[in-house]
Amino acid sequence: MNTIALAAFGQLPAVQVSAADGAQAVITLYGAHLVSWQSAGGAEHLFCSAKSALDGSRAIRGGVPVVFPQFNERGRGLRHGFARVSDWALVDSGTEVGKDGEAGAAFAVFALEPHDLPPAAAQAWPHDFLLQLRVTVGGDKLAMAFEVHNRGAAPFAFSCALHTYHLVDQVCDARIDGLRDAALAIGDPLDEIFFGVQPRLTLRAGAATLVLEQDGFTDAVVWNPGAANAAALVDLEDDEYQRFVCIEPAVIEPLTLQAGQQWRGNYRITAG
Ligand SMILES: O=P(O)(O)OC[C@H]1O[C@@H](O)[C@H](O)[C@@H](O)[C@@H]1O
């Protein structure tokens, strides 16, 4: 089986990453945007809106948008930054060796550099950087490793998030453990930043349980637009808000990266 196949997602070029055990992921080059993750049993774990633009005219509504270098409207740049609306390059792919020496998880690595940015975004954020996103799938696990490299001669500051749209049967039944003393139910709407979270959260949604582990990322954002705000979003069907909750490992307060330094954040999801 090929680890990597060229694919299309709507009108967007994409790659499909396949592990020998059947686990799969689809990532568009536009945004290095993970739009589908199926664990080895074939279950899909990510929500993607039926109304999402899939032509590069705006960010994809669903999957895992990469938020960088600005979170939401906390700055003067593009809302949630330029990474999700830039064309990344596939720079590596392959298969990891499993415990028994057999083919294990499959991975693909994507990169974004200043020359990849839309001109206006490059002008507005004139720093020399390299972003890398490594997506690994195998068994019941998804791992995303996000790296920021400062290749310039001066420091720069950034915020970031992996804005993960977890697919659920009914958002009103979903609960998140680990953010508060009691389980967090998803209000209609809910938009909250949790600073300094513990590294392991659990999402319980119907019969499914996802274990969410993050390091490097200090914070987590939980978002669901609820009925009224969903109706106002042009790229979401009115009732689709019931099918996802976003839990986003994040660095909200801008982090300063010195010249020559790099930063890495990991997000691992285990489906149960
Ligand atoms: O519509 P966008 O730009 O994808 O943002 C979606 C949501 O993203 C979340 O991360 C924010 O906390 C919300 O405030 C925001 O509405």
TrEMBL record:
Reaction catalysed by this enzyme: alpha-D-glucose 6-phosphate = beta-D-glucose 6-phosphate
A Pfam family recorded for this sequence: Aldose_epim
Protein name in the entry: Putative glucose-6-phosphate 1-epimerase
E.C. number(s) listed in UniProt: 5.1.3.15
Organism name: Massilia psychrophila
Keyword Transferase: no
Stated family: Belongs to the glucose-6-phosphate 1-epimerase family.
Keyword field contains Protease: no
Molecular-function GO term, any one: carbohydrate binding
Coiled coil: none
Cross-referenced Gene3D superfamilies: 2.70.98.10
Keywords: Isomerase
GO biological processes: carbohydrate metabolic process
Active site: 163, 248
Broad EC category: isomerase
One GO CC term, this protein: cytoplasm
